[in-house]
Amino acid sequence: MSDGVEVNFNSNEGWSRLPGKTGCVLLTFDDGPGRQTADIVSILNHYDVKGLFFWQGHLLHHKRPFQNLLQSGHEIGTHAHQHVDLTRLKPEHVRYQLFTGKRELERLTGQKISYFRPPYGKINTTVRTVASELELTTVLWNISSYDWDPHMTAETIVERAANAGTNSIVLLHERKVTVQALPRLIESLRANGRHLLSRSDRLPFS
Hints:
By secondary structure, this protein is α/β, with parallel strands linked by helices. It has one domain (24-196): Alpha-Beta Barrel (TIM Barrel). Helices cover 33% and strands 16% of the residues. The chain has 6 helices and 8 strands; from the N terminus they run E-H-E-H-E-H-E-H-E-E-H-E-H-E. It has helices at 37-47, 66-71, 91-109, 125-133, 154-161, 176-191; strands spanning 24-32, 51-55, 75-78, 115-116, 137-138, 143-144, 168-173, 195-196. The strands form 2 sheets. Strands 1, 2, 3, 6, 7 and 8 form a 6-stranded parallel sheet that branches. Strands 4-5 form a two-stranded parallel ribbon. Strand 1 (24-32), helix 1 (37-47) and strand 2 form a beta-alpha-beta unit. Helix 5 runs parallel beside helix 6. The protein is globular. The relative contact order is 0.23. It comes from Alkalicoccus luteus. Residues 23-197 form the NodB homology domain. GO terms for molecular function: hydrolase activity, acting on carbon-nitrogen (but not peptide) bonds; metal ion binding.
C-alpha cells in the first residue's frame, strides 16, 4: 500500500490511515509477543508514544509482558491465531483463526479485543465478514518500514519510515533491528514535524 494523500478508509480492506483530521502518526508492531516486546515498550514509554501491537494467539504466554504494555497505555489487537494467509482458507478456518486469536488474547488480558490485522495484510470478503461478525476493526497500514527484510538495517528502516505523512499508520515488527531503529525513528518523525499518538491518546478508529 502506498502513502496516498486522501485515503482514510478503503471499504474493501480496512483502515490504512488514521481517520479524520488527527494529524498524527500511529506506530504499529506485528508478530509478537516475543523477546523484543519489553524493549519496544520501554522505548515507547520513554518517548511517550503509543503503540498498537498485533499478536498471534499461538505465541501467547502468561509470562509475556502484556500487563506492563497495557498499563503503560498501549493496546493489543489480534494477528489471528497463526500467521497464515487467511484469503487461502475456507470460511470455517478463517473463523477459527480470528475467533481463537481473539479469545486467547481476551483470556490472557481480561480485556475486550477490538482490533485485527490480517497476516501479510491480505484480506478478502470472507475475512472482512468474519472480522465484522466478531466486532473486530481491521487496521492495515500505508507506510511499511520493511523491517521484516533481513537485508534491512536500522538506518534503512528509519529512512523508509521517517517520511510518513500525517494520519499515517506505520507497519513495524517485533524484531531486534526494529528495537535498534525505534529511538531514531521517533526522533526523526518529530524532527519532521509529525505528532505521534501519545500513550494517553485514544485510538481514533470507530
